[in-house]
Specification:
Layout lengths: L3 H6 L5 E3 L8 H9 L4 E4 L5 H14 L4 E6 L5 H10 L4 E5 L7 H6 L3 E6 L2 H10 L3 E5 L5 E2 L7 H11 L4 E4 L5 H9 L4 E4 L1 H4 L8 H9 L5 E4 L6 E4 L2 H10 L5 H8 L3 H7 L23 H19 L1
Length: 311
């Protein structure tokens, strides 16, 4: 299955595993890459020395292309970028910041650069910055999200209409049918997060994985827009946030409630009451914990069968 995305990354399938905090270590990234997709190490939850260790272990675990996702608000960004260069990482996905700041620097070092956006406006800014491809992520996505609340099915064709570089769809995609749908709308590939959270190789806590599997439609909500919008499973912490909103809180009060390491507490340590449980709306279609390779193959098989039905 060859198209713009498989050629850009030199991979078999146009499936990218999202670089999620507390979930996407080298085990998951290498497993997805070995299965024919593109695995990403999520640098957002790693100290620089930990990231270097994961990159080195990923090199040993796969001889296929893999990349690193870097949130541009990262406090140790200069050190992270230096590690990326030193370890000869060839693919970097950037998010949560201005792509103009580092795209040229990365490309000058021979790195393929992709930026994640949630609107047509920022897709155009990313293209102007010189990125090689764009991830357009809809409102359905888990974790940190756009404020616009534009759904994937409306965002993808609107972005496709305005850009001329490869486009990757994200948000609400976990199946082969979903992959086919967004490719029909104009995407060249898909970035999938939530379904890989429940893979065997994911570093998410088993409590969190089991909670995702049990999550039904309507049990996630985008909140904390005044800080950084994030989609959460509704638990005790989420309910505390909603109670605070009834008091019309200041940003400082929201920050005080959020505190530090909420996502680590919930997703990595398995505290289902007080932790942030970040996941996409598509969790309602995820029913089992499986190896990453099986997830990739199921998506491709369903994509192929569904495509035949349209012909």
């Amino acid at each position: 299955m060859q198209n713009k995305i498989t050629k850009l990354f030199k991979i078999k399938y146009p499936i990218i595993q999202a670089g999620m905090i507390w979930v996407s270590g080298y085990k998951l990234a290498s497993a997805v890459s070995n299965a024919g997709g593109l695995g990403l190490i999520g640098a957002g939850s790693m100290y620089p020395n930990v990231l270097r260790e994961h990159i080195q272990k990923c090199k040993k675990a796969t001889n296929k292309p893999f990349g690193v996702n870097i949130p541009l608000f990262y406090p140790d960004l200069d050190e992270i970028l230096q590690i990326i260069i030193e370890e000869k990482v060839k693919i970097v996905f950037t998010s949560a910041g201005n792509p103009k700041l580092y795209t040229s620097f990365l490309k000058d070092n021979g790195i393929t650069v992709v930026h994640v956006v949630s609107s047509v406006k920022f897709a155009l800014k990313s293209q102007e910055a010189g990125v090689d491809a764009i991830v357009a992520e809809g409102f359905e996505a888990g974790g940190h999200n756009g404020r616009e609340e534009t759904t994937t099915f409306t965002l993808i064709p609107m972005v496709k209409e305005k850009i001329n570089i490869p486009l990757i769809a994200a948000g609400g995609i976990a199946t082969g049918k979903g992959m086919l749908a967004v490719l029909v709308l104009g995407a060249d590939g898909v970035q999938i997060g939530s379904r890989f959270v429940t893979s065997d190789e994911s570093s998410a806590h088993i409590n969190f994985k089991n909670t995702v599997v049990a999550t039904k439609d309507g049990e996630t909500q985008l909140t904390l827009k005044e800080l950084t919008p994030v989609r959460l499973i509704k638990n005790d912490f989420y309910n505390q946030v909603q109670e605070l909103y009834k008091q019309k809180p200041s940003i400082e009060q929201l920050k005080e409630l959020l505190g530090r390491a909420r996502a680590k507490k919930g997703m990595f340590e398995g505290d289902l009451k007080e932790g942030e449980l970040e996941i996409g709306q598509i969790a309602g279609l995820i029913h089992k914990i499986k190896p990453a390779a099986k997830i990739v193959q199921e998506i491709i098989d369903e994509f192929s069968e569904s495509k035949k039905l349209l012909c």
